[in-house]
Amino acid sequence: MSASAPAVEVDGLVMRYADTVAVDDLSLTVDRGTITAVLGPNGAGKTTTLETCEGYRAPQQGTVRVLGLDPRRDRRDLLPRIGVMLQDGGAWSGVRAREMLDHVARLHAHPLDTAVLADRLGLDECGRTPYRRLSGGQKQRLGLAMALVGRPELVFVDEPTAGMDPQARRTTWALLEELRADGVTVVLTTHYLEEAERLADRVHIIDRGRLIASGTPLELTRGGEVATIRLVVTKPFPPGAPESLRARLGERTEVQQLDELSLLVTGPADSTTLAKVSAWCEEHDVLPETLSLGQRTLEDVFLQLTGRELTS
Ligand SMILES: Nc1ncnc2c1ncn2[C@@H]1O[C@H](COP(=O)(O)OP(=O)(O)OP(=O)(O)O)[C@@H](O)[C@H]1O
Q1: Can you give the pLDDT at residue 153?
Q2: Whose CA is nearest to atom 1 of ligand 1?
Q3: d(Cα 148, Cα 122) in Å, to the nearest integer?
Q4: Pocket around ligand 1: residues whose beta carbon is below 6 Å from it?
Q5: Distance 163 CA to ligand 1 centre (A)
Q6: Using CA positions, which residue lies closest to atom 7 of ligand 1?
Q7: Each residue's pLDDT tens digit, 76-112
């Protein structure tokens, strides 16, 4: 495999649990040395996809290659080269945090210094605490340390900052950025949009097991000369408001009602659109509380593609 070949190649993956199709003909690639975010709502199929890449599940249909290897057939060759941070920790309940990290370090030929890693991830304070007594954020930090201690070429991190306080989240982001600077490939799942926008070189958005968009955060949010206007009002909109506003704004505009007090307008990023929304409010006796023009966020992209909110 050449050095520039993808770190991960998923091709036509299908995974089912009884009647549930968890992953539905999914194809994606992850370039080496990048941070790639797999973004999607709960139940989108992110964990199942990652677990298949990590070799915990066999593809039911399609193929998966990781560092050019088959994650199950070539497991012995692959394991020393990848790091995995599982969603539920992967440690025994009675083991102390530091013992667990030292144990994992001993499984690797050239581990990082566990004292340095524990200090960096703020694990010193809980080094003697049994795993079951760690807080959610401490378990996450220990899981990350366990994934990194073997100096992997590629790390899979499932919801790395879920349950972390803001400071631990920033430390984790900085650590993942340092890994990338050292040439390590990072694949993370998240439903934090800010995390994907801030960290990822490339984002794959998954919904109901299918890939619905891929690109850099900028490619996904720029979408040409498109912007969004959020209109939040003080009392519920009159019936038929989205249709009426859309008719006023013209062909190139979409209007979606988010709830009874807010609408999202997606259309040309110009002041005329904003002025027309404002005029429509006046004509319909609607009092805006917020009328804001902004670039699209990944949340807007998801909403536009699926008609649903990512965070709901
Ligand atoms: N062990 C299992 N048995 C049965 N169904 C499962 C199992 N694991 C996942 N599923 C189902 O498969 C679908 C995809 O789940 P998956 O955990 O891969 O999604 P996810 O995007 O990682 O979600 P989350 O963000 O909640 O972790 C969901 O409908 C889920 O309920």
Answers
A1: 96
A2: 17
A3: 15
A4: 17, 20, 22, 40, 42-48, 191
A5: 19
A6: 17
A7: 999 999 999 977 767 778 889 999 999 999 988 899 9
Give span(s): CATH 3.30.70.980, the chain.
Answer: 224-295
CATH 3.10.129.10 assigned to 8-220: no
Q: What is the rounded average pLDDT of the residues 112-128?
A: 91
Atom of ligand 1 nearest to the CA of 206: 21
From the alpha carbon of 191, which atom of ligand 1 is closest?
Answer: 25
Q: Closest ligand 1 atom, CA of 47?
A: 22
- How sure is the predictor about 4, in pLDDT bands with cuts at 50, 70 and 90? low
Residue 2 pLDDT > 90:
no
What is the pTM (predicted TM-score) of this model? Answer: 0.80
**Separation of 48 CA from ligand 1 center, angstroms?**
7
Query: Among 13, 24, 47, which is best to mutate for testing ligand 1, by the most ligand atoms less than 8 A from CB?
Result: 47
CATH number of 224-295: 3.30.70.980
